[in-house]
Amino acid sequence: MPNHRKVLITGAAGYIAGRMLPAFRERYDLVLLDVRTTNRQGEEVKDIQVVDVSDPDRELYKHHFEGVDAVVHCAFQGGGFENELNNIQMAYNVYHTSWETDVRRVVVCSSNHAADYYENLIWAGKWDFVTPEMRPLSDNFYGWAKEAYEHLGFVFATGFRKNKKLQNVQIRIGAPRETDMDDVTADNYEKMHRALGAYLSVRDQVQLFVKSIETENIEDENGIPFQIFYGISDNSHKFWSITNAREVIGYAPEDNSAFRFAERIAEILKQTKNE
Questions:
Q1: Is the model's pLDDT at 2 over the cut of 60?
Q2: pTM for the structure as a whole
Q3: How many whole angstroms separate alpha carbon 46 and alpha carbon 82?
Q4: How much is the pLDDT for 189?
Q5: Is the four-CA dihedral 121, 125, 131, 133 of positive or negative sign?
Q6: Theoretical Cys-Cys bridge with 159: which of 3, 165, 182, 209, CB 3.0 to 4.6 Å?
Q7: In the chain, where does DSSP find H-type helix?
């Protein structure tokens, strides 16, 4: 049943937004922004308004943010240091425009790559688990930019010491695909563990974002309305913690990659047995 919240989505023609749009159209009044009106398949996405939120002149699109309850920031430009700098500028524009127009909360598509350096340690047998509370460390520009999104979001959440806090949630999205197990072979356990541990189903993604938008209180122990959640399903092979998402917003993922891909896992085990 619709609750009549007005939600703005940047990058609305993109893959991550596209997984949520059917459910969001039923639940919210949407403002959809992107630099194009077609998705990856070249299909038109209904109701998109062509807007470039990477433009530092925020007056060009500020009116789209007026009266909005929450912003879901999915937009980004891929590839290279210069584009990642532009992505940080774009995140700043979204935060600042939201802050100026009294948007209650921003939910940001961060990435597991904000802390992907720790994966090197996991696969080397030096580390077991990563939590959102750990210092974000990346060894690539994409992850570095996502770190910057998160740090910048925290600045806005504090309110600049002006008692006007922009609530925000950073979702470190895992592997929102159904295809990562397709080319896993019996001799690549690391790849299988990674694919199974990082999996995020559509319905779990929708639930995670909806609860990130709607949960009333997301303050941390110091009263700052800021949270980082890992965007994965309830996978038996997970190596990122979702405990805080369960506790803060009541995230209750319904899917587990071990069950979702049980037949494929059986095929791989059969390969091992036959070798």
A1: no
A2: 0.95
A3: 31
A4: 85
A5: negative
A6: 165
A7: 15-27, 62-65, 80-100, 117-123, 141-158, 189-198, 202-214, 243-249, 257-260, 262-274
